[in-house]
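Weekly sync, protein design subgroup
Attendees: M.S., D.O., the rotation student, P.L. (late)

Item 1: inverse folding check
M.S. brought a backbone from last month's batch and wanted to see whether the design step gives back something sensible before we order anything. D.O. pointed out we never logged the input encoding, so this time it goes straight into the notes. Structure tokens as presented (480 positions):
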């Protein structure tokens, strides 16, 4: 039998990736050392944390960095705030070419957030873990007057993204139910519609829960509903970062939810209801399809839910579910204590559904979470209540969507664009997913940006090698 030519051995993929990883680490270490560094003042951090510690929703304080403006030709800047658990940024970019992104990264991320630049407008970048991070860009295409203005560094002092009104840290020591547990099996759409949101309010950053909602046009407009006392306003709605899929993959398993991964940043305020403690916004970017999110159905019909659930982020923790047997009770003009809250009020009143939990509870940080009835339809948002780890049988109060509907034409028209605010329920036709595609660059970054399956870090390093120029953003790509 004639001998066949044997293929020559090829370099194994694992060996290639290992070699590339070593090269990336060397390149990025050199790049980090070459970048200018903006730092916060430790005394100012301590004073700001002390001043905000009584505010239940707040987990981060904003401080002016040591560098206010970074020239475009520098290629980037390192950000350092000693002792920070997370870092965020508020910035503005000027004289920037359209389509040229920023890359926001820390050592705790496997890939950078890809930031779409909005010329001359304040932008709030999502949190990244740790006390050191880098913001980088390609300087080749920039004009000489291109500049990045650093307005605030958000120093995260709580273990958020691991927080009376229900507003943010790890959930309490009582038994909270992961959405990966069997109790959540029948509630897939509410689970996938629920997000954690962070909100920049003045010199602080706060955390709440929110829900992605459908409308009667079934056009997948990315509407988010949350509590009004979470303090999303027309002036700061652009600061909202919506974090999807922050949840355990195994019931009561490891804390493997990634709060820095599936993020959409920036929103526009649409409307609010004071009496139902409800706010509605629309995200400024579509939700990438890779997030596998769902648009929740809703009903503004004033019928009490007989049973159901709430899905929420207690203390900014990974997503949980609480279950009630109902029926819910009507509670009008209930006073909710909000001492130290972002609204600057000691208390407010709300017309609410009252529920008591059969399993689970809610905590500070759960504010804004949806109340879902026995049909899997949202009928309210969490405003306050007396349930907690120490009082799991207390009553929780959800601002009634029917009240918000009657009070706010803006909410009616946004949820029902087809009938001009006369149809009090969504059609249930839009529970299949979100617009966008994997790797879409969004205002605050998806955290999972890829180009043709090649991570941005790998792509940048390869381009840097090809052009013999520094393109790194300061950190390697550690295994997670």
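Designed sequence read out in the meeting:
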């Amino acid at each position: 039998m004639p001998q066949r030519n044997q293929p020559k051995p090829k370099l194994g993929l694992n060996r290639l990736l290992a070699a590339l990883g070593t090269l990336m680490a060397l390149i990025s270490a050199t790049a980090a050392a070459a970048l200018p560094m903006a730092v916060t003042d430790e005394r100012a951090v301590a004073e700001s944390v002390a001043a905000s510690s009584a505010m239940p929703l707040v987990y981060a304080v904003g401080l002016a960095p040591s560098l206010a403006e970074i020239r475009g030709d520098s290629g980037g800047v390192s950000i350092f705030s000693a002792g920070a658990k997370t870092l965020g940024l508020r910035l503005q970019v000027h004289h920037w070419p359209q389509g040229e992104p920023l890359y926001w990264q820390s050592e705790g991320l496997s890939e950078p957030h890809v930031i779409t630049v909005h010329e001359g407008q304040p932008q709030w970048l999502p949190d990244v873990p740790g006390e050191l991070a880098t913001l980088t860009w390609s300087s080749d295409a920039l004009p000489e007057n291109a500049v990045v203005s650093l307005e605030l560094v958000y120093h995260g002092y709580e273990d958020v993204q691991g927080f009376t009104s229900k507003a943010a840290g790890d959930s309490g020591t009582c038994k909270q139910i992961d959405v990966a547990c069997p109790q959540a099996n029948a509630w897939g759409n509410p689970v996938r519609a629920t997000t954690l949101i962070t909100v920049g309010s003045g010199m602080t950053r706060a955390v709440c829960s929110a829900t992605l909602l459908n409308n009667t046009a079934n056009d997948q407009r990315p509407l988010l509903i949350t509590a009004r006392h979470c303090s999303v306003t027309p002036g700061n709605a652009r600061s909202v970062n919506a974090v999807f899929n922050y949840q355990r993959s195994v019931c009561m398993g490891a804390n493997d939810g990634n709060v820095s991964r599936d993020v959409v940043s920036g929103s526009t305020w649409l409307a609010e209801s004071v009496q139902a403690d409800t706010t509605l916004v629309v995200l400024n970017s579509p939700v990438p399809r890779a997030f596998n999110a769902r648009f929740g159905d809703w009903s503004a019909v004033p019928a009490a839910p007989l049973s159901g659930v709430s899905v929420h982020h207690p203390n900014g923790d990974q997503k949980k579910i609480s279950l009630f047997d109902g029926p819910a009770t009507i509670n009008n003009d209930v006073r909710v204590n909000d001492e130290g809250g972002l609204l600057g009020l000691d208390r407010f009143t709300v017309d609410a559904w009252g529920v008591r939990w059969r399993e689970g509870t809610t905590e500070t940080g759960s504010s804004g979470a949806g109340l879902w009835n026995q049909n899997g339809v949202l009928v309210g948002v969490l405003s306050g209540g007396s349930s907690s780890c120490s009082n799991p049988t207390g009553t929780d109060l959800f601002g009634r969507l029917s009240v918000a509907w009657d009070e706010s034409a803006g909410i009616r028209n946004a949820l029902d664009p087809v009938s001009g605010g006369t149809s009090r329920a969504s059609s249930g036709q839009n529970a299949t997913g979100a617009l966008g595609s994997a790797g879409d660059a969004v205002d605050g970054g998806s955290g999972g940006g890829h180009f043709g399956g090649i991570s941005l870090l790998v792509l940048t390093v390869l381009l840097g090698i090809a052009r013999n120029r520094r393109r790194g953003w300061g950190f390697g790509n550690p295994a997670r």
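Discussion: The chain is about 15% helix and 30% strand. Residues 209 and 226 are 7 Å apart (CA to CA).
Action: P.L. to compare against the previous round before Friday.
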